[in-house]
């Protein structure tokens, strides 16, 4: 009986600790995700401001290529020219930082940016959140 009590208590303690760790991991993931979404928005803003309204111009193309090479050297994957263009488009599509939703991931925003109609995009933005 004593061993059974210890086993039950041990299992209960383990379950509580496990739940605490899972909750902490979930919070960390959400915090990191939100920080990265904010960072991508800022990167998009900086690229937009540096390259002007038309990133198809020679300077814009050269800037994106240069940034991609340098950022990839220092920070690794994730900074391809295509991804940097997505970050720029993210800023253009959602120019007001306060409208960003911390519950949405970069993947959510990449999908939302594909919706051309602003009213539909706003609707889906609210629904996703």
In short:
This protein is an all-alpha fold.
Could you explain how this protein is built, in words?
This protein is mainly α. The protein has one domain (36-128). Helix content is 77%, strand content 0%. The chain has helices at residues 2-51, 58-75, 81-93, 106-112, 118-128. Helix 1 packs across helix 3 (81-93).
Itemize the secondary structure elements and their pairings.
Layout: H1 2-51, H2 58-75, H3 81-93, H4 106-112, H5 118-128
Helix pairs in contact: 1-3
The number of helices is: 5
Order of helices and strands: HHHHH
Nearest-angstrom radius of gyration? 22 Å
- Structural class per helix/strand content? mainly alpha
- Domains, number: 1
Model regions low in confidence, pLDDT < 50 over at least 5 residues: none
Mean pLDDT: 88
| C-alpha geometry | elongated
The major sheet is characterized as: none
Strand content: under 5%
The strand count comes to 0
> Roughly how many Å apart are the termini?
50 Å
Q: Could you estimate the helical fraction of the residues in percent?
A: over 70%
